[in-house]
Specification:
This is LacI family DNA-binding transcriptional regulator. The chain is of the alpha/beta class and about 350 residues long. The protein contains 12 helices and 12 strands. β1 (about 65-70), α5 (about 75-90) and β2 form a beta-alpha-beta unit. The relative contact order is 0.12.
Length: about 350
């Protein structure tokens, strides 16, 4: 069925398009009789104004834009949910762009935000985005970084201390007597992953006789984690890591399954620590020790900071909020220390 437009209403009411627009949006500019005639025609035809067009004419889109690295990861899904909590309370909606570990997609999302005139953008960057973010800001669209920081100090951010997180995870393994460690992470170019590895290396450097082997994957899926677990299990026991830090829980859970499927015990032979503490970590076949990130709270806080900037609240253009890690110990490391 053809959508009824403003031209159809004008023809039914026998008035100009501009008169219809005034009667529906600025009724004080036309007579009461014309307003009633136009509204009657609109009702007869079932005309529904395009809300987006009305908002844009008023200088508002009613939207916040948000990019995330991979929404298949529950950490990012929870972060989006937190942003939606804050946006909904302010009468706004969130337009979400999932880059799926793809820089080109990420940039496409930023360009879309510019085209639809979002009121502000929440960006969890996968790759370098400086020129694209500068374009948004040049259009008067405020930006807040999420799960990242701006080295220039120009953009406010809500982030997580990943160096401390990587260090905490590794120190836990070392405290259980593990010395041959591995760090399994996706994409060394991702800042958060690099910082987690840096923290792990700091912990290892403080323990004589300990070593850590970086192992890189292309993506952070449980299937890839399982494949790497099987590969580690195929090594001779003396060459196999006895402790693993994974850059997220998906990898870690898959890794545990891969090890167990090849007869390697977790945690007796290999202890595993994940990252993010997604909901499934606690109910996995071997409950997973993990570094907890308050994803939903981070998303909500970042959206509240962005809304303050949109509203022009003094000082809201500044600020860097950094959350600290929490270690949640479960069966994938617990109870089998090597003193």
């Amino acid at each position: 069925m053809k959508r009824v437009g403003i031209r159809d209403v004008a023809e039914r009411a026998r008035v100009s398009i501009s008169t219809v627009s005034n009667a529906l949006n600025r009724p004080h500019l036309v007579s009461h009789q014309l307003v009633e005639r136009v509204r009657s025609a609109a009702d007869q035809l079932g005309y529904v104004p395009l809300q987006a067009a009305q908002q844009l004419r008023a200088g508002r889109s009613g939207l916040l834009g948000m990019t995330v690295i991979n929404i298949a990861n529950p950490f990012f899904a929870d972060m989006v949910a937190g942003a939606e909590d804050a946006a909904s309370a302010a009468g706004l909606r969130v337009l979400v762009g999932n880059s799926s570990d793809d820089v080109a997609k990420e940039r496409d999302h930023i360009e879309l935000f510019e085209r639809v005139h979002v009121e502000g953008a929440l960006v969890s960057p996968f790759g370098p985005l400086e020129p694209w973010l500068q374009r948004l800001r040049g259009r008067g669209i405020p930006v807040v970084l999420v799960d990242s920081v701006d080295d220039s100090g120009e953009l406010p951010s809500v982030s997580f201390d990943d160096v401390a997180g990587g260090r905490l995870a590794t120190e836990h393994l070392l405290a259980t007597g593990r010395r041959r460690l591995a760090f399994v992470g996706a994409r060394a170019e991702v800042r958060q992953v690099r910082e987690r590895l840096h923290g792990a290396r700091l912990a290892v450097a403080a323990h004589a006789g300990a070593a850590i082997e970086p192992i890189w994957t292309e993506r952070t899926t449980s299937d890839l984690g399982r494949a790497f677990g099987e590969q580690l299990a195929a090594r001779d026991a003396a060459d196999r890591p006895d402790g693993v830090v994974a850059s997220n829980d998906h990898l870690a859970i898959g890794l545990v399954h891969g090890l167990i499927s090849r007869g390697v015990r977790v945690p007796e032979d290999v202890a595993v620590v994940g990252y993010d503490d997604i909901e499934f970590a606690a109910i996995a076949a071997v409950p997973l020790t993990s570094i907890r990130q308050p994803a939903r709270e981070m998303g909500r806080t970042s959206a509240e900071l962005l809304l303050a900037r949109i509203s022009g609240i003094a000082g809201s253009e500044l600020g860097s909020i950094v959350y600290q890690p929490e270690l949640v110990v479960r069966a994938s490391t617990a109870g089998h220390g090597r003193g």
